[in-house]
Amino acid sequence: MASKTFVCFVYLLCFISSVSVASEYTPLDNFIVKAKSVTKSVSGTSVVLIKGGQITHEVHVGMANVEKQIPVDTNSVYYFASTTKAIMGLATLQAEKEGLLSKDSTLRQLFPNVKFSYINPDNYSVRDLLSHRSGLTNDAMTWTFSYTGNHDKKQRLHFVSSLKPHPKIKKGEFGYTNLGYNLLAIWFDENYEGGCPTRLKS
Asked: CA–CA separation, 63 vs 72, rounded Å?
């Protein structure tokens, strides 16, 4: 079954490579095809290039459902996972450029109306949050943000107020976590219309 799946996958890659109509993107398409072939990855991969607000090129390779042999296409839904960290990092840089925060802004400055129960918010900066070195934890918050999306403003601010020092990772030590980016997402939601960095709330 696995060998048949891989053969079908290779045929699919060859087909996509041969029908590419945008010659300037052929090297990109070939790279994607080769990478998928070398790694023997049958999972779906979609690459979309946007210029001036318009889609200039897209390629979809692999399977959305391996068991049912359903290939990915323009309607396939992906779980973004930690890809959002890069987006949040860029949004934070944009906010810094606009003078709305800096890498040295503290949690108290980000959330002046929140009463922190377990930490001194003056000791934690945006730099700590972005570099995974805050030494903070809140499992309920990270799990809710990562997997359910079921939260409102009151609950989000409660998450902020109930941050605690991590029992094993000290401030300044690296400990990979979603928490810092979740906190910045809450700050954006509090300060921007729809959480969008281009629309500051009045």
From this structure: 5
pLDDT tier at 148 (50, 70, 90 boundaries)? confident
**Cβ neighbour number for residue 64 with a 10 Å cutoff:** 18
d(CA 54, CA 183): 32
The tokens for 150 are 């079921």
SS (H, E, C) 71-129: ECCCCCCCCCCCHHHHHHHHHHHHHHHCCCCCCCCEHHHHCCCCCCCCCCHHHCEHHHH
Q: In the chain, what percentage of residues exceed pLDDT 70?
A: 84
Q: What are the residues whose beta carbons fall under 8 Å from the beta carbon of 64, sequence distance 6 or more? A: 44, 70, 71, 72, 73, 76
Q: Which two tokens stand for residue 33?
A: 């095809």
pLDDT above 60: residue 135: yes
The secondary element (H helix, E strand) that includes residue 62 is none
